[in-house]
Amino acid sequence: MVEKIYFRCTVCNDFHYGNNPPQICPTCSSINAYIKVTELEADIVLFEKQTRRGKNQWRLEEFLGVLRDWCEDSDFSLNADEEHVYLTLDGVLRNERQNGLKYCPCRVPTGEFEEDLEILCPCNFKTQETWAEQGRCWCGLFIDPERYKVE
Ligand code: SF4
């Protein structure tokens, strides 16, 4: 039997459980917005099962591999500055260990569960001012290779 995987829509936080993510999100109609996530993340977001915190977490290399796969055939990529990418992902995974979910390392969770789902990494970064103006997500983890200029 093929193992089923959880996927999260990075635009509306809809979850899908299956072998592959839908190309079009049935909830918000975004295209190719689903990213593979752990069962832990799905459990916490869907059912607030905070008791499972600390189990089944990805290591940095696993998370990096998932993000690299996600960037394939997209109009965005990971920042070419590997040190910056490692530091950012280290912050995301530290947040997961400490706060239960992969919150953005550059923003402070409010403590309001629903509101903080907006800053799960990867977030809906194409709506951010930094994306429109500089071609990068708020933390510079993802960039638009056509527009992003190293300062
Ligand atoms: S701004 Fe970048 S690093 Fe922060 S959550 Fe969004 S995608 Fe992740």
Helices and strands in order:
Layout: E1 5-9, E2 15-18, E3 34-37, H1 39-47, H2 60-71, E4 77-78, H3 82-99, H4 113-116, H5 129-134, E5 142-143
Antiparallel strand pairs: 1-2, 1-3, 4-5
The structure holds iron/sulfur cluster.
Residues 88, 104, 106, 119, 121-123, 125, 137-139, 141-142 line the site of iron/sulfur cluster (SF4).
Q: Which cofactor or ligand species appear? A: iron/sulfur cluster
Rounded to the nearest angstrom, the radius of gyration is 15 Å
Going across the biggest sheet, name each strand in turn. Answer: 2-1-3
Q: Low-confidence parts lasting 5 or more residues at pLDDT below 50?
A: none
Please explain how this structure is put together:
This protein is α+β, with helices and mostly antiparallel strands. It has one domain: Ferredoxin thioredoxin reductase catalytic beta subunit (Ferredoxin Thioredoxin Reductase), CATH 3.90.460. 32% of the residues lie in helices and 11% in strands. It has helices spanning 39-47, 60-71, 82-99, 113-116, 129-134; strands at residues 5-9, 15-18, 34-37, 77-78, 142-143. The strands form two sheets. The protein has a three-stranded antiparallel β-sheet. Strand 1 and strand 2 form a beta hairpin. The protein is globular and about 45 Å long. The model has no long low-confidence stretch (mean pLDDT 90). The structure holds iron/sulfur cluster (SF4).
Entry keywords:
151 residues, alpha+beta, two-stranded antiparallel sheet, 5 helices, 5 strands, globular
